[in-house]
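Marked as duplicate of an earlier ticket. Keeping the data here for the record.
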Amino acid sequence: MTTAGDIMHRGAQWIPAHETLDRAAQLMRELNVGALPISDENERLCGILTDRDIVVGCVAMGRDPARITAGEMAQGTPRWIESEADVGEVLQEMKGHQIRRLPVIENKRLVGMISEADLAQHLTDDQLAGWVESVYSTSMTR
C-alpha cells in the first residue's frame, strides 16, 4: 500500500499566521515553493497561502504585503491528510475539495506536502488521468 508519507515532499515549512505576506513571499523564494501552510500559535494548520493569493488578494488590490499577515489571508477550512493515509484517500481528498496541494500531518505536526508534481511522479497513468480530469474539468468552468 502506497501512503501519503511515501509520495509527499518532505521538508515542508509553516508560515506563522502573524508573519507578513512579504516574509511569506521571501520564504517561498528560499524554499522554491508556490504555497505555504499557515500555522496558528499552537503550530496547528489554519490555512494555506499561495503565491497567487499574495498577488491577487493583496498586491492587485493595492494593499501592502508588508502590512498584511498570512493569517488575514487564510480562508475556509484547511484540508490535510495523515501520513499513513492510503494514496486513494489522498486522491479523494484532493478531488473532493478541488485542491492541488495537500499538507501531510503526523502526530499533529506538519511533515510534508503533496503537490501535483508529487502525484505525477508516483501515480499510475490511469490514477493521474482520473485526478487531472476531476480537478481541472470543473475548475476550468468557474
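See parent ticket for discussion. The CA atoms of residues 13 and 37 lie 7 Å apart.
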